[in-house]
């Protein structure tokens, strides 16, 4: 019962045929614990490649992520708390400087990685500021993590639609995933299956949105009502409430996206 009832929600996001199946690790959210100066910071990634390891050099203000990819085209999102690493970023893929996109607010830096290369790769993210306002602790590292209020990656299609990873609509989807779905077993199962499916076509859709403003407006008109209805998930507190509200939203969205157009078409045919 866990994920079966949530799978139809995937159909509401499909605006183009699937472009081929990829790794079963595609889109999995990974949380990296970065231990430095007596604190533990949490870096969050969502990607279509596997995270093998990571390391942080506070002197060089560098976060290094070691990955393994089964695809030529790699796409990832990295969320870094600004009290760990901030400022103007420089990026290196396998020791070669490259240009990547980054956005930030007062708490986090959100980085979108897009590069090519199958197999093992090394990603270096170098900032101009590190551990700002963080007091070094010489005692053993505790299990408590330095908190920050926002985590997780964003939705590629929603980001392209609304123009920024920090747009309110993208933040809403990210918070729904991290604060609701990932807090329940059924939600985790849904996210894992959804990401495998979603990342198989969303990069192509997002790229086409950026190239075609008219297509982007069509997508915006299509997903805005769905995002609005998802705000009802804020009222779900328990696993059963997440399931029941999720099923209700599926029925509601099927009615909006399938039922209403069908009624209109039937009405026109009778005229």
TrEMBL record:
Annotated organism of origin: Marine Group I thaumarchaeote SCGC AAA799-N04
* Keywords, in A-Z order: Membrane, Transmembrane, Transmembrane helix
Q: Which NCBIfam families match?
A: CFI_box_CTERM
> Where are the membrane-spanning stretches?
242-268
Q: Which InterPro entries match?
A: CFI_box_CTERM_dom
Q: What is this protein called?
A: Peptidylprolyl isomerase
């Amino acid at each position: 019962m866990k994920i079966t009832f949530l799978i139809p929600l995937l159909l509401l996001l499909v605006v183009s045929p699937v472009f081929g199946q990829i790794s079963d690790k595609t889109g999995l959210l990974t949380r990296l614990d970065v231990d430095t100066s007596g604190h533990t910071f949490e870096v969050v990634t969502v990607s279509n490649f596997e995270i093998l390891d990571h390391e942080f050099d506070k002197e060089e203000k560098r976060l290094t992520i070691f990955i393994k990819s089964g695809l030529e085209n790699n796409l990832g999102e990295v969320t870094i708390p600004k009290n760990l690493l901030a400022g103007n970023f420089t990026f290196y893929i396998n020791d070669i400087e490259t240009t990547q996109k980054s956005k930030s607010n007062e708490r986090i830096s959100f980085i979108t990685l897009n590069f090519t290369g199958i197999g093992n790769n090394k990603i270096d993210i170098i900032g101009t500021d590190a551990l700002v306002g963080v007091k070094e602790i010489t005692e053993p590292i505790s299990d408590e993590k330095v908190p920050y209020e926002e985590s997780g990656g964003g939705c590629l299609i929603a980001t392209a639609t609304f123009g920024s990873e920090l747009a309110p609509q993208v933040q809403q989807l990210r918070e729904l995933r991290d604060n609701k779905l990932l807090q329940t077993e059924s939600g985790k199962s849904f996210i894992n299956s959804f990401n495998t499916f979603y990342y198989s076509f969303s990069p192509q859709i997002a790229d086409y949105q950026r190239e075609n403003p008219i297509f982007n407006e069509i997508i915006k008109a299509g997903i805005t009502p769905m995002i609005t209805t998802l705000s009802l998930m804020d009222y779900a507190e328990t696993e059963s409430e997440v399931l029941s509200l999720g099923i209700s939203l599926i029925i509601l969205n099927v009615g909006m996206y399938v039922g209403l157009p069908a009624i209109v078409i039937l009405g026109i045919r009778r005229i």
